[in-house]
């Protein structure tokens, strides 16, 4: 399925939001929640699942930022006569020049011009060392693949995708050649999205720096949380999690860390201290 231009596609998850993975389900997380056939998904270089995680502090800053910018009302007749600017336009302009803390950021217009200049001016080439890195990664991962269905396919297109990502990173830095670091970063990006899509054939520590032990702990605590939610009508306490986790050998510090991770993803929230509810 060759294309004459780059394709950027966006779609909502099947159930309106990405749900946490059910580790007992043999179907990959990505395939389960995006209503597209795996052969079509494999045509994309990357597939990012954007999740709206609950973060009370950040959410409050965003809300205050919007209200602060929008606070001053402007009469409609002044806008129509051209004597004033519509507040929504000011909001849009300010949101693209400052972050939620009021710090200056690069504007969308500048970034568009930067990317256009980089694509038009720079055409990076790869040397033998870069190709060895990409080919070596691909062949190594293919050796580790088995016949399990719980994975996102690693096909020959993968090596083309990582090469394109390496070239894109070189353009980002306004270079005419692809470096070994570009290749390694491209491999890392490919590994991250595949891990998030529940590709069990990729070791998360290879690309994310998160050890398997931490990944295993979070999966176990997530399973405990899910079971408690079902058994206790969606509400449970930290003590409930402590007790269930202790049976699997996890201490309270580990449970606290994993609960924070699960909360940050927006899967649970705390209506009061020590009490949790399924989102």
Molecular structure report:
This protein is mostly helical and 279 residues long. Among the domains are: 29-50 and 114-207, Rossmann fold (3-Layer(aba) Sandwich); 212-278, Arc Repressor Mutant, subunit A, CATH 1.10.10.10. The chain is built from 13 helices and three strands. It has helices at residues 29-33, 38-41, 56-70, 76-80, 87-95, 108-121, 128-144, 157-172, 180-196, 204-207, 212-231, 238-246, 252-264; strands spanning 235-237, 268-272, 275-278. Strands 1-3-2 form a three-stranded antiparallel beta sheet. A hairpin with a 2-residue loop joins strand 2 (268-272) and strand 3. The model is unreliable at 22-27, 146-151 and 199-212 (pLDDT under 50).
Main traits of this protein?
279 residues, mainly alpha, Rossmann fold, Arc Repressor Mutant, subunit A
List the helices and strands and how they pair.
Layout: H1 29-33, H2 38-41, H3 56-70, H4 76-80, H5 87-95, H6 108-121, H7 128-144, H8 157-172, H9 180-196, H10 204-207, H11 212-231, E1 235-237, H12 238-246, H13 252-264, E2 268-272, E3 275-278
**Could you give the order of the helices and strands?**
HHHHHHHHHHHEHHEE
| Overall average pLDDT | 76
Beta-strand percentage range: under 5%
Give the biggest sheet: 3 strands, antiparallel
Structural class category: mainly alpha
CATH architecture of the domain at 29-50 and 114-207: 3-Layer(aba) Sandwich
**CATH fold field value of the domain at 29-50 and 114-207:** Rossmann fold
The low-confidence runs, each spanning 5 or more residues with pLDDT under 50, are: 22-27, 146-151, 199-212
CATH class designation of the domain at 29-50 and 114-207: Alpha Beta
Number of strands: 3
Question: What count of helical segments does DSSP give?
Answer: 13
Helix content: 40-55%
Instruction: Give me the side-by-side strand order of the main sheet.
Output: 1-3-2
Instruction: Give the distance, in angstroms, between the N- and C-terminal Cα atoms.
Output: 40 Å
């Amino acid at each position: 399925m060759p294309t004459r231009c780059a394709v950027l596609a966006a779609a909502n998850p099947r159930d309106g939001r990405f749900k946490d993975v059910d580790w007992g389900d043999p179907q990959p997380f990505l395939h389960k929640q995006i209503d597209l056939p795996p052969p079509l998904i494999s045509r994309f270089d990357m597939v990012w699942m954007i999740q709206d995680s609950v973060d009370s502090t950040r959410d409050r800053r965003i809300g205050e930022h919007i209200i602060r910018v929008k606070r001053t009302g402007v009469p409609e007749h002044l806008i129509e006569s051209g004597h004033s600017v519509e507040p929504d336009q000011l909001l849009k302009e300010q949101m693209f020049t400052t972050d939620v803390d009021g710090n200056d950021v690069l504007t969308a217009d500048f970034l568009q011009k930067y990317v256009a200049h980089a694509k038009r001016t720079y055409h990076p080439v790869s040397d033998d060392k870069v190709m060895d890195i990409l080919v070596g990664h691909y062949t190594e991962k293919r050796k580790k693949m088995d016949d399990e269905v719980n994975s996102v396919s690693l096909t020959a297109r993968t090596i083309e995708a990582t090469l394109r990502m390496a070239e894109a990173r070189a353009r980002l830095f306004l270079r005419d050649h692809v470096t070994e670091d570009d290749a390694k970063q491209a491999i890392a990006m490919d590994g991250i999205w595949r891990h998030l899509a529940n590709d069990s054939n990729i070791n998360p520590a290879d690309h994310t720096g998160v050890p398997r032990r931490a990944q295993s702990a979070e999966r176990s605590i997530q399973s405990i949380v899910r079971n408690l939610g079902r058994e206790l009508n969606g509400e449970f306490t930290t003590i409930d999690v402590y007790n269930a986790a202790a049976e699997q050998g996890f201490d309270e510090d580990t449970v606290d860390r994993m609960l924070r991770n699960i909360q940050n993803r927006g899967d649970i929230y705390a209506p009061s201290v020590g009490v949790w509810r399924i989102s």
